[in-house]
């Protein structure tokens, strides 16, 4: 029972504490009284409970204070720091207040001045009121108003005021002298107004002449933005997203909007959609004002004639180019800007005024300007040798033409001029690529391209369309037959096509025409530039036989790649080669001609090399007997020919066979000429035997088939003339030769009597002092007689042939 009472007491005390904590202080009294009304010792237990609760709250307060103590300290520290800034701010405020007071004094002084002016204004108003009480005062007030309006450039208002004075006020007070004087001054005032307005017009014309390039620059920039926009719209149209734009100038449907003539417009973003009209950007008020004044004064025709005359003079100045205009694109741009600015202003005047200028007048100006522009561009573009500059000129001409076409001026002649500029552009491209080709040929090593890995092979094939099944089967490392110049040339031809295509853009031409332009320019590159570079390369003295062989191989591969160039152009223009009138590439003939020239140069250089070896020949023409061995120079020559013809096996077609046959024929001819040389006076039989050994080596070389493909002894026939001649002298078979001469079956059919006679005369006794047969006995003397007899018979044969 006691435990229950204690628990209830504790619960009651807890409730009372919570009520004290949560209840207003004024209501605590009844709660505390209830404690004393309970059990006798209840208040002591409540006090203990209260002390415990207080100690608990003290601990919480202490914890909280400890927790926030550092923040409090930091706040105090910051406050101390702010005190210095507050003092500084206080000083600034004080200084500002002082300066404000000083400024206020000036404002106060100005206010006082304003008050004085207001007083004066009020006095003037009072005076005007008083003056209006009388007619002379009113008339004088109107006169004052005229002067004021003239000074404020309100010329039309001044004219209206003078008209009112002349027709309304002056007749009422015409009896006064000052009114008569005023009436006499009115014509003078009208002339002054005309002069002032004309002066403003002259200032306007001078200003517009100086700033016409800025006008044109902005108009051309806007035309270029419109072109870019149209390109974007065309792309969107292909994707099914097209919104047709609407452009207008001064209420007219127009391709290009207004002008952007303010000096600040150059800083505007190109994406700004705001389009300003001419009235927004050019102050035409002097023109309108002067036109209106002259119309009111009945002298409009004078004004129109003056304006048109001045604009014609300005047009001639605008059309006069600078001497160095062709040196930079900026020179052309300034020239076009001035012209565009001039005609944009005229177009606006045409539509904004009634009859000041007419369509016939602007057309006359434009036709005169167009002829001058075309002549200037023809002259200056001919000086340009930079294709990039010519291309920029073309772009400027296109934008120039599009801009003026948007304002209603016919520009077909400008687009016709672009075809002439295109030819100039192609010429500069050809000159540029001629240098590129020369550099490629100079840096080429004229040896097959080595490829070590699959990546290197793919890199070469990606630059040049090369396909060879046998080479693809070979293991790495391997060599491709052409040299490094072939993929470079092929790549540069494609780059030329791209460069030529750049000029065809924006010319409003069909794909077929662009395709025709590309093919014609590419044909010029191949047949003229590249062909010339190849011909010059082939003729260079440092190009040897190995290099010539490689050039022939290179031209063969380039010739095979021509069909890929055709496909390349077709992919660009989307015009099929089967289309009617499609121009074909002439690369095949170009590379064939170069290959034929290289082949001819091979034959020439090979013969020159043979001549160099033959010049080393040192025969002892008076030797008694041969040593039984062929001459050293000839063996070296044969070894050279053998190694050279091994290289020739890589040549296509029958080039190697032709070169081998040519070399053997030249060798045979050179040896024959050596025997018959007029400087050679005497030849011994021993020398003939030695010469025969050398010819035998030549025949052995020919029979060894140095180049495959010859049938039978075809190559040996190159030495048949020498062989029959030497056999005739070695066997001394003159009876057979003379008996069978002229017969198709003759053993010595290839021996000409004149040749045999020339050689025989070198062997007979021509002088007793130097007679190679002087040591002969009777048989030798008989042989000498036989020689003389044969000589006589040969001479008769020669004479018979000549007769």
From TrEMBL:
GO cellular component: exocyst; plasma membrane
UniProt domain Exocyst complex subunit EXOC6/Sec15 C-terminal: residue ranges: 414-762
Signal peptide interval: none
BP-aspect Gene Ontology terms: Golgi to plasma membrane transport; intracellular protein transport; vesicle tethering involved in exocytosis
Matching Pfam families: EXOC6_Sec15_N, Sec15_C
The Exocyst complex component EXOC6/Sec15 N-terminal domain, residue ranges: 49-220
Entry keywords, A to Z: Exocytosis, Transport
Family: Belongs to the SEC15 family.
Function: Component of the exocyst complex involved in the docking of exocytic vesicles with fusion sites on the plasma membrane.
Protein name per the record: Exocyst complex component
Species name: Dicentrarchus labrax
Lineage start: Eukaryota, Metazoa, Chordata, Craniata, Vertebrata
């Amino acid at each position: 029972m006691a435990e229950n009472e204690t628990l209830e007491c504790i619960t009651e005390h807890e409730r009372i504490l919570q009520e004290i904590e949560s209840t207003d202080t004024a209501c605590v009294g009844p709660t505390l009284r209830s404690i004393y009304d309970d059990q006798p010792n209840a208040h002591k237990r409540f006090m203990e409970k209260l002390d415990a609760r207080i100690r608990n709250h003290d601990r919480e307060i202490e914890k909280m204070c400890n927790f926030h103590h550092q923040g409090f300290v930091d706040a105090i520290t910051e406050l101390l720091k702010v005190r210095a800034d507050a003092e500084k701010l206080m000083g600034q405020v004080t200084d500002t207040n002082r300066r404000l007071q000083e400024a206020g004094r000036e404002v106060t002084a100005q206010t006082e001045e304003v008050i004085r002016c207001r007083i004066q204004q009020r006095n003037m108003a009072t005076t005007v009121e008083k003056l209006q009480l009388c007619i002379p005062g009113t008339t004088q007030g109107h006169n004052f108003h005229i002067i004021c309006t003239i000074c404020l450039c309100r010329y039309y208002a001044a004219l209206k005021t003078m008209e009112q004075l002349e027709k309304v006020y002056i007749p009422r007070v015409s009896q006064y002298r000052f009114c008569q004087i005023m009436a006499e001054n009115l014509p003078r005032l009208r002339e002054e107004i005309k002069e002032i307005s004309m002066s403003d017009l002259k200032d306007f014309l001078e200003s517009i002449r100086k700033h016409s390039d800025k006008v044109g620059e902005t108009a051309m920039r806007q035309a270029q933005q419109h072109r870019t926009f149209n390109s974007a719209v065309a792309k969107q149209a292909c994707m099914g997203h097209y919104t047709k734009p609407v452009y207008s100038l001064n209420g007219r449907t127009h391709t290009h909007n207004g002008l952007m003539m303010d000096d600040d417009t150059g800083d505007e973003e190109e994406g700004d959609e705001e389009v300003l009209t001419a009235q927004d950007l050019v102050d035409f008020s002097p023109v309108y004002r002067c036109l209106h004044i002259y119309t009111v004064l009945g002298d409009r025709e004078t004004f129109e004639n003056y304006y048109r005359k001045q604009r014609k003079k300005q047009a001639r100045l605008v059309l006069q180019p600078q001497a160095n205009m062709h040196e930079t694109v900026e020179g052309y741009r300034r020239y076009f800007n001035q012209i565009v600015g001039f005609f944009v202003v005229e177009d606006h005047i045409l539509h904004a005024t009634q009859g000041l200028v007419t369509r016939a007048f602007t057309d006359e100006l434009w036709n005169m300007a167009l002829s001058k522009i075309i002549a200037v561009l023809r002259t200056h573009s001919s000086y340009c040798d930079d294709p990039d500059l010519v291309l920029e000129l073309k772009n400027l001409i296109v934008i120039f033409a599009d801009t003026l076409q948007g304002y209603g001026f016919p520009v077909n002649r400008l687009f016709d001029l672009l075809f002439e500029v295109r030819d100039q552009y192609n010429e500069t491209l050809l000159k540029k690529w001629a240098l590129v080709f020369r550099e490629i040929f100079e840096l080429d090593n004229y040896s097959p391209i080595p490829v070590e890995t699959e990546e290197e092979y793919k890199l070469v094939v990606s630059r040049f369309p090369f396909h060879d099944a046998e080479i693809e089967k070979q293991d790495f490392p391997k060599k491709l037959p052409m040299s490094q110049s072939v993929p470079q040339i092929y790549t540069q031809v494609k780059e030329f096509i791209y460069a030529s295509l750049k000029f065809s853009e924006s010319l409003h031409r069909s794909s077929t025409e662009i395709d025709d332009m590309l093919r014609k320019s590419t044909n010029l590159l191949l047949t003229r530039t590249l062909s010339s570079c190849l011909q010059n390369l082939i003729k260079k003295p440092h190009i040897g036989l190995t290099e010539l062989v490689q050039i022939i191989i290179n031209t063969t591969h380039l010739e095979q790649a021509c069909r890929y160039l055709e496909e390349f152009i077709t992919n660009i223009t989307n015009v099929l080669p089967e289309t009617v009138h499609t121009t074909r590439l002439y690369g095949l003939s170009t590379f064939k001609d170069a290959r034929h020239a290289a082949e001819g140069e091979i034959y020439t250089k090979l013969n020159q090399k043979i001549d160099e070896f033959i010049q080393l020949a040192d025969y002892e023409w008076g030797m008694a007997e041969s040593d039984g061995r062929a001459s050293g120079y000839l063996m070296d020559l044969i070894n050279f020919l053998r190694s050279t013809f091994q290289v020739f096996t890589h040549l296509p077609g029958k080039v190697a066979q032709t070169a081998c046959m040519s070399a053997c024929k030249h060798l045979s001819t050179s040896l024959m000429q050596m025997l018959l040389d007029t400087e050679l006076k005497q030849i011994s039989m021993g020398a003939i035997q030695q010469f025969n050994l050398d010819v035998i080596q030549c025949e052995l070389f020919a029979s060894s088939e140095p180049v495959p493909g010859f049938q039978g002894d075809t190559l040996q026939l190159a030495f048949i003339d020498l062989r029959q001649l030497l056999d005739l002298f070695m066997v001394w078979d003159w009876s057979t030769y003379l008996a069978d001469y002229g017969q198709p079956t003759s053993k010595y059919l290839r021996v000409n009597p004149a040749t045999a006679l020339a050689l025989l005369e070198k062997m007979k006794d021509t002088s007793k002092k130097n007679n190679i047969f002087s040591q002969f006995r009777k048989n030798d003397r008989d042989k000498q007689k036989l020689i003389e007899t044969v000589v006589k018979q040969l001479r008769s044969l020669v004479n018979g042939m000549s007769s």
